[in-house]
Each structure stands twice: as C-alpha cells, then as structure tokens.
Amino acid sequence: MLAVQCFYISAGSYRRGGYVTFRGQEVSPGEVFKRVLLAGIDPFRVFADVARRPDTAGAFACMLLLAFAHFLSNSVLVAKVVVYAGKGEKIAPPAVTVDGAVRKVVAVNATSYRRLGPVSEEQYAALNMLALGYALTTWVAWALGLWLAYKLAGGSPSPAVLMSGYVLSSKVYENLTRAALLAMFLRDLGRIELYVEPSQGAQRVGALLNLASAAFTTVEGLPTAVAVHAAFFTVWSAVVATAAVNRGGFTSLPRSIAAGLAAYVLASAIQSLAYSALMLAL
What we know:
This protein is 61% helix and 17% strand. By secondary structure, it is α/β, with parallel strands linked by helices. The two termini are 43 Å apart.
C-alpha cells in the first residue's frame, strides 16, 4: 500500500526542558487527501494531526491546487476580454463605459484602434506562470510569517514550512469561491473590451487583468460581493494562522491568537509585494 513516511513528535518536544521522541508513522494517500481538503475548513483538528504525523506531500499538493485555483479565478475574467490597441495619450484612471452587455475600459485616447482579439495563447501561458508564482510566493510568505509566529509564541519554528503549506488550503477555497463568484455575476456580460497601447495589449497580462477588473464597478452587486468575500477570508485566514501556531507550535491559545495575527500581517505584506512584482513582470 502506498504511504507517506512521517514521524511522530510528542507534544513535550516543544516545551522548554522537554524532550523529543520520534516514532515511525505512516500517512496513507487517503489521509493526505483528507488533510488537503479539510485543512482550510477544520484547521485546528487537521493541524493537530499534521503536528503529530507530518507529511510533505499534502503541503506540496496544497501549493499545486492553489496555483490551479488562482489560474481558474483569473481565467473566468480573462475569458471575457477582447483587446483593442491604439496609439495616443494614456488615460489614468481608465474610463469605463457601458454599452448593453459590453463593458469598455479605455486606457489610451487614440483616434483609431486595431482589434487584437481575445487573450492570446502566449498570454494564457503568462497567466499560468502568474498562478504558479502566486502559489510559490504565498507559501514562502506564510512560511516566514509562521516562523516569526512560532518565535513570538515561544514554540519551535521547525514546522513552519510544513504548516504553511497546509495553510494554503484556505487560500485554495478563497480562490475557488472567487472564481464561482465572478462566474455568477459575469454570466450575463458579453465581453470586456480593453483599449490599450499596442505593447501593453500584446504582452502584459498583469496589466490586462487590472484593467478588466475596473469593469467590476459597472456590474450590479459585484463590488459588494467581492468586498464581503475578501473580508470573510481575511478573518478566516487569521483563524487558520492561529490554528497553525496553536497546534503546530504546541502553544497556548492566547499566545497563538496574537502570534497568528502577526503571522497573517507579515505573510500578507510579503505576498502582496511579491504578487505586485509578478503582475508588473508578466
């Protein structure tokens, strides 16, 4: 039977003056699958189990699923985009107009525009790279955040990388529900026409995503739904971080709450900066 080799670490191993004992354990593929699915829903129970029987397969699977979920979320929006290019003076912020089921986002004031068409295969490839970069930078950001949290809470920082991988499970749900939200609100939208400079339309998928998002303001109910969705997952991410510190670092709940909030703030700041850089690069 296939299994993931792991080790059991007793709770006393993280106490000052305590001890460490290792005992060979196995985590079956089915258990890994359940961990990946439930870490973002029932984090305290799952992280307690991961702390007792660590495995890297689940953490890596969460990262790959996050890349897929992020790509799916962006694809729902990008599928509506049609690009037009023209030379002229930039318009900032871009002008957004409504023409029936069409939204026009004009970022350049040109006398004429050339239709480039939907997003190209090369730009979809860049969208794939953006999703993978997002997943990797989010994992790194949370690893650093949890490392600091374990230090602040007085626990061992050794499980930071593993636990941060499982933290990504909640981000998977965040991106999947965002994709569902966009699909629901944009279902009656025919297309989003973007009027940009030639170089921008041909290469910058990050810039196209930002411009397409400007059309949200013209879709009834969507700005509110996006704001509520973001607020909910902000709170839930802090809860998941608290669970990772509490169960992974074997620390008290009050310390875990404070350290979890610190982890969330640091991880969010690092991830936001890294993602902004990716959007500029791609």
